[in-house]
């Protein structure tokens, strides 16, 4: 508890110290305009830091219950309620900042309603508030590791809306930056939360730490890669790292990541062998210091989100063999998801002799088509309207059929991945696969995707656009699943 409190204080102090000059400047400008903001400019970064840290605690405890050491997720409900309450405070502080009034005057229902329905930041915080409340309620009823795993995934999703609604959403290259930042935030939250859960104590610590070691390595790699993408897109010149506050904060975060990488190396060389030998104090000491560095880095991230980047560049676009008719805008979320699931599928195929090559081809083709539908941009004027409709249709109808034809649940059963197979046959999924409910969800997801095409969400609300693609694919898989043949290995 002492370590957790120290981390909270450290992250808050870092966020306030780094953003102090910008916050004070905003307050002076408000005074010049005759606006009385009160404590709102200072409350925003404090509440943002508290929200991030409470989300880290929720994700970490659910990760521990769902994947690392098991146990019921009910104790997480308190942390989820704190996260919900802090998000409500962030909404009030954001409303005050938008209207230029003290927080107590911003509590008028009409002002709050305008903020959460008309302002992108308010809309994002409302989504986080609702999802955090759902996680808190779910923690009261979930009793299994599978339930904790589902709630953890939902909690990670709840972290993302404010990230997608930040400065990156207004940049010319916002599709790439927004996706990279969402992956960056998700990996950082899982990494920090898992380490926090281990430090607070886990059943069978040696086993839990061994399981988390691989997760932490992947999270570190994703955090570094997406951080480089974001920095390359927002900082045009090397001198920006030293001549701008945004660049200086980025440079400090990069240094912190180097230190955290050194901690990971030390864990693998010293801490894990000592833990396996029955000496847990070595891991606890090193992990405690690492956790404090992560908390300080979270404070830097909050300050960075409130800092204006030095440059707004054009879209990140790559040529293809068909350029100028076709260009490729990379989508980090879809690319990473496709690489992970295809790699896992191929690994399963190698462990099951005689698995159908047609199923493997269908699985790989489905994910390839989804990536193409979500990332290729067609510049031919006459065909643009047709292609804008064709790409969502491919995602809605062709991709689900190919993914179901790949029979991932059958492969999981044949490969001995009992937990994945059990999840595929779980009662919630059986209910969702009922024809009436599956078709309803499919129609709703298809309608959302159609609205996104008409409203051009790809250019204005990339996070929602990406979610609509994944939702229609998931709903399509539910529709196709009841009709799939029994999985065979030949």
Strand/helix succession:
HHHHHHHHHHHEEHHEHHHHHHH
Number of domains: 2
Query: Judging from the principal axes of the Cα atoms, what is the shape?
Result: globular
Structural class: mainly alpha
Beta-strand content bin: under 5%
Strand order of the largest sheet: 1-2-3
Q: Report mean pLDDT, rounded to a whole number.
A: 78
Topology, number of strands: 3
End-to-end C-alpha gap: 55 Å
In terms of per-residue confidence, which ranges show pLDDT below 50 for 5 or more consecutive residues?
379-384, 483-490
* Biggest sheet statistics: 3 strands, antiparallel
Helix content: over 70%
| Rg for CA atoms | 23 Å
Count of helical stretches: 20
Protein described:
The protein is built from 20 helices and three strands. It has 490 residues and is mainly α. It has two domains: 304 residues, no CATH class; 166 residues, no CATH class. It has a three-stranded antiparallel β-sheet. The radius of gyration is 23 Å and the shape is globular. Helix content is 78%, strand content 2%. The longest helix has 32 residues. Helix 13 runs antiparallel to helix 14. InterPro entries: Caa3_assmbl_CtaG-rel (IPR019108), CopC/D (IPR032694), Cu-R_CopD_dom (IPR008457). One of its GO terms (biological process) is copper ion transport. It is a multi-pass membrane protein. This is Copper resistance protein D domain-containing protein. One of its GO terms (cellular component) is plasma membrane.
């Amino acid at each position: 508890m002492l370590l957790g409190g120290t981390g909270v204080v450290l992250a808050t102090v870092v966020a306030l110290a780094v953003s102090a000059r910008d916050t004070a400047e905003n307050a002076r400008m408000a005074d010049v305009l005759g606006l009385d903001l009160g404590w709102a400019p200072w409350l925003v970064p404090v509440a943002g830091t508290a929200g991030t840290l409470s989300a880290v605690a929720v994700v970490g405890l659910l990760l521990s219950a769902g994947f690392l050491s098991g146990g019921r997720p009910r104790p997480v409900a308190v942390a989820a309620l704190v996260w919900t309450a802090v998000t409500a405070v962030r909404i009030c502080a954001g409303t005050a900042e938008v209207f230029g009034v003290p927080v107590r005057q911003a509590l008028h229902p009409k002002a709050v309603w305008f903020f959460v329905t008309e302002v992108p930041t308010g809309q994002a915080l409302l989504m986080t508030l609702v999802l955090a409340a759902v996680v808190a309620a779910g923690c009261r009823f979930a009793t299994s590791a599978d339930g904790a795993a589902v709630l953890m995934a939902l909690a990670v999703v709840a972290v993302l809306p404010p990230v997608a609604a930040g400065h990156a959403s207004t940049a010319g290259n916002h599709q790439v930056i927004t996706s990279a930042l969402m992956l960056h935030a998700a990996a950082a939250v899982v990494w920090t939360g898992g380490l926090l859960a281990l430090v607070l104590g886990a059943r069978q610590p040696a086993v839990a730490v061994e399981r988390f070691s691989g997760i932490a390595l992947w999270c570190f790699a994703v955090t570094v890669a997406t951080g480089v993408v974001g920095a390359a897109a927002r900082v045009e010149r090397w001198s920006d790292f030293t001549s701008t506050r945004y660049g200086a904060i980025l440079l400090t975060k990069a240094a912190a990541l180097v230190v955290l990488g050194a901690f990971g190396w030390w864990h693998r060389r010293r801490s894990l062998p000592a833990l396996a030998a029955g000496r847990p104090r070595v891991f606890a000491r090193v992990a405690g210091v690492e956790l404090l560095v992560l908390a300080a880095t979270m404070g830097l991230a909050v300050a960075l989100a409130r800092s204006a980047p030095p440059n707004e560049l054009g879209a990140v676009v790559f040529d293809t063999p068909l350029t100028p008719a076709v260009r490729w805008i990379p989508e980090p979320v879809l690319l990473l998801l496709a690489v992970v699931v295809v790699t896992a599928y191929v690994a399963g195929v190698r462990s099951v002799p005689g698995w159908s090559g047609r199923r493997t081809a269908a699985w790989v083709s489905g994910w390839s088509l989804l990536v193409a539908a979500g990332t290729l941009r067609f510049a031919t004027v006459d065909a643009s309207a047709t292609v804008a409709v064709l790409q969502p249709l491919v995602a809605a109808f062709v991709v689900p059929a190919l993914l179901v034809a790949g029979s991932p649940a059958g492969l999981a059963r044949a490969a001995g991945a009992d937990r994945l197979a059990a999840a595929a046959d779980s009662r919630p999924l059986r209910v969702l696969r009922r024809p009436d409910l599956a078709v309803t969800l499919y129609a709703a997801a298809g309608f959302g995707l159609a609205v996104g095409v008409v409203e051009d969400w790809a250019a204005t609300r990339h996070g929602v656009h990406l979610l609509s693609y994944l939702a229609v694919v998931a709903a399509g898989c539910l529709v196709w699943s009841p009709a799939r043949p029994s999985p065979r290995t030949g």
